[in-house]
Structures are given as structure tokens and as C-alpha cells.
Design goal:
single chain; alpha+beta; SH3 type barrels; five-stranded antiparallel beta sheet; 7 helices; about 15% helix; about 20% strand; globular
Length: about 350
């Protein structure tokens, strides 16, 4: 009898293969502002129409400025990040959100037998629709007409496309386990460090000094004591191999807010300390998610291959934001490479 039962439909999860719907189908699901539930479909996504891709993770639990948010019926696809080509050359490299309406299941094949279980996908809804030109115009919000150039993208619209998750509401962990985003063991290992990190942040803003641990400093400790933070020019280029310095060495380069020349060393970067990594690209400008302004980063900083936020201290969200690294936090791995550009140390004035 069990063999005759119809398999229970399930939601998309990591490893599922899907096909991105055609441009015509996706445009029909959008409102005049090129969004679904507040989430914009961006021009950079058009090139993926018709392609078959693998789901990287569900986007049910995401974040904005470190605060957890809840998103409906969306996933991340493996390796598909925004290249910023329609957003002034933004180099943030954000992992793109895909509404399930924009995807269709792939027919079962020997290569993808997991597709044989029926999927419970959000069905496309035909809204007012928009054109390709509407999608392009939506990258500039209406307030841009005031003179200053502002940008609108998925990162700046996360607040509009999500709902806040209360600080001490732990139900998102249960949901992410049930939907295949997380393993129970991962949650059990990370829930206490995450709660302690959250407590530290709240204690700085709302609790008297005597209730703070280590004066409310982020744990693990990443803050330093420098007032004038040092700069090192390694002349790094894409493909160069580096070793991330130890947390103790990095703290010596940071000020009391864990910043080096204005760029923060985040606690989510600590798992990479001591590891050998490769430079992926240099970063000079990114769109500020809060204001929509294009920020030009002072001084050299790089992105390392695989050096993404794992949200170990931020509720295990799946956004996987790429981290930005000062060269002073790194060292060249090979002596031969170190004989190239000469390092120079200079204190910020």
C-alpha cells in the first residue's frame, strides 16, 4: 500500500534543479514597479532566463544590517550573484534572491533523481506586468530625481520584501531544519554563541554597565585599541594566494570599534583566521543598502574566494554576503610572491 501512495509535495531545498522561467513569463508576474511582494526583479537577472540551475539554499531566513528577517517563497541559486552591471558597477557581489514564481521544476532525469518527488512551488500570478524597460528604470527610485543619484536593488529593498524576526524568537531555526536549510547539529552548536552575541549588542544599547559582559564588546573579541590604524600595501591582485592573519594579529590593527581606516572587521570573518585563501577581486565601490547611495571605499580592500558570511553569530541566515578585507589583515603566502611589490606600513593621520 505504501508504494501506491502519492508522494507528499515539498518545498524547494538545496540541491534541487530548477529552470528559470522565460523573460516573458517573469515579466508577467511583476507589478509596474518590477517587484513581487516588494522584491525587485533586476536587469542582471535577465541573462539567467531559460537556464537550468541548482538551488543553493532557501531564503526564508535572511538579514538586513545584522537583524534577521523573514522572506516568503524565495531561494538562492548556486553561484548566481549580482555583477552590478545595471547598478553603476557596484562590486558588492550579492547572492540574488529568486521568487519561486520565477522558477519551474526540472523533469526527472537519471542525473537528477531527486526531482521525481513533486515540488510545492508558488504558482505564477499574473499581475499588472511590466516591460524590460520598466525593469531597467526601477534601478533608480523616484527620489533620485532630487539631484543625487540613488540606486534600488534587492539589497536595498530587503526591508520592503521581508518581515522582522524578533530577537529572541527561535522558531526560524526549527523552520530551517524542517525545510532542509540547516542540520539539527549545526543549530545546537551555534545557537548559544549566537544568543551571546545578540545579548552583547543589546547590552551596549539598553542595559546598565554592570550587566554587560566585557563592557558589551563583541564576542569573540575583534576590537583593538589603536587610535591611528595601520595600513599595509601588498599590491594584491586577483589570483594571489594569501594567509589570513590570526585574530590576535588583526586586533592589533583595529580601533575600539573593530575598524581599520573605517572598514569593520566583522565577527563572521573570524572563522577564516589562519587559513590560506585566494584573492578573488578588488573592491572599490558598493551600494549602501540603507540609503541606496554608491559608496567609494577608502583604501584598498579585497574579496577572498569563499570568504562569505556564514552567519554563525547572526542566526545562521543564508544570505552569504562576501566579506571585504584590508590587506593589513592578510599576508602573502609564498616568499617568491612577497619579493614583488614592497610592503609599506603607514599610520592613518
Amino acid at each position: 500500500m505504501d508504494a501506491l501512495r502519492t508522494p507528499k509535495p515539498r518545498l524547494l531545498r538545496a540541491g534541487d534543479v530548477v529552470e528559470v522561467r522565460s523573460e516573458e513569463e517573469i515579466l508577467a508576474t511583476l507589478g509596474p514597479d518590477a517587484t513581487v511582494d516588494g522584491l525587485p526583479f533586476m536587469p542582471e537577472m535577465l541573462q539567467q532566463c531559460g537556464s537550468r540551475v541548482t538551488v543553493d539554499s532557501r531564503a526564508d531566513t535572511t538579514c538586513f544590517y545584522g537583524a534577521l528577517r523573514d522572506m516568503d517563497a524565495a531561494v538562492h541559486l548556486t553561484g548566481i550573484r549580482c555583477d552590478g552591471s545595471a547598478h553603476g558597477g557596484c562590486q558588492a557581489g550579492c547572492l540574488i534572491y529568486w521568487k519561486e514564481e520565477w522558477l519551474r521544476p526540472v523533469e526527472p532525469t537519471p542525473e537528477h533523481p531527486q526531482a521525481s518527488q513533486p515540488l510545492l512551488l508558488a504558482q505564477p500570478l499574473h499581475r499588472d506586468g511590466c516591460t524590460r524597460d520598466d525593469v531597467s528604470r526601477a534601478v533608480h527610485p523616484p527620489e533620485s530625481s532630487g539631484g543625487e543619484e540613488l540606486w534600488s536593488c534587492q539589497a536595498t529593498q530587503v526591508r520592503a520584501a521581508t518581515r522582522p524576526i524578533r530577537t529572541w524568537d527561535l522558531r526560524h531555526y526549527v523552520r530551517d531544519v524542517r525545510r532542509g536549510n540547516l542540520r539539527p547539529g549545526t543549530v545546537l552548536r551555534r545557537i548559544l554563541p549566537s544568543l551571546l552575541f545578540t545579548y552583547q549588542g543589546l547590552s551596549r544599547r539598553r542595559l546598565p554597565r554592570w550587566l554587560r559582559v566585557a563592557k558589551g564588546a563583541d564576542i569573540p573579541f575583534i576590537h583593538g585599541t589603536s587610535r591611528q590604524t595601520p595600513s599595509v600595501d601588498l599590491g594584491l591582485q586577483p589570483g594571489d594566494r594569501v594567509r589570513v592573519r590570526s585574530r590576535r594579529e588583526i586586533r592589533a590593527t583595529n580601533d575600539r570599534k573593530a575598524r581599520n581606516r573605517g572598514l569593520a572587521f566583522d565577527v563572521e570573518m573570524t572563522p577564516y583566521c589562519g587559513k590560506s585563501m585566494r584573492v578573488q577581486r578588488l573592491v572599490q565601490q558598493i551600494i549602501d543598502e540603507w540609503t541606496g547611495r554608491m559608496l567609494h571605499l577608502p583604501g584598498r580592500c579585497v574579496v577572498l574566494e569563499g570568504g562569505v558570511c556564514q552567519a554563525l553569530y547572526h542566526g545562521l541566515c543564508q544570505r552569504k554576503t562576501e566579506s571585504y578585507w584590508r590587506e593589513v589583515w592578510l599576508e602573502r603566502e609564498t616568499p617568491a610572491a612577497a619579493q614583488g611589490p614592497v610592503s609599506r606600513a603607514a599610520a592613518q593621520t
